[in-house]
Specification:
Elements (H helix, E strand, L loop, with lengths): L8 E3 L5 E5 L5 E3 L6 E8 L3 E2 L2 E2 L3 E3 H4 L8 E3 L4 E3 L2 E3 L4 E13 L3 E11 L7 E10 L5 E12 L6 E7 L4 E3 L9 E8 L3
Antiparallel strand pairs: 1-2, 2-3, 4-7, 4-8, 4-17, 5-16, 6-15, 9-10, 10-15, 11-14, 11-16, 11-17, 12-13, 12-15
Length: 190
Amino acid sequence: MTGILKVDSIQNAAGTAAMAIDSSGKVTGSVNDSRQCVMGFMLTSGVSGSATLTGWTDMATQLSSENVGKITRGGSVTESSGVFTLPFTGLWQVELYASANSSAGDATVDYNIQSSQNGGGTFSTIAQAKESHSASSYKLNISLKTFYSCTDTANDVIRFAAGSAANTTTESSTTHSVTSCIFTWLGDAD
């Protein structure tokens, strides 16, 4: 026995139609129009040695004359002293792109994405990338990303740090993105 399943809409958890299918099979819907966020920040002052990266500026604001943009429906990521607060709960993609130079050799330089669930009281590394400098005037580029499930916007925070970097300076610029981070809200987390 065969049958046909007729579906004309799919409801979200609140019981309202999240997606509709018309008679021709065309699917329409919206992806949480009230909560969308994609933001980038750029480092505008260099950070020497092993330290939390501070000196971030909203990239879309800093480079607005270059048409750099962002999406902030429902809220914006905010930053204070290198600590980032997320505007709503859910699954976030967090990315760091760092450029650095050295004044002497560093056997290992690591860059870290760190999280705290107590408003910044204690941080743990959730993603790390490593590189090395063999002599002065060497450069390195690091990129890393992770997924982060924010469950409490008052206490779940993110920061970025350089470690084992005694002779290394994380580079910055006010006219283009040299070291940057990107936050993308992906949706409600399981």
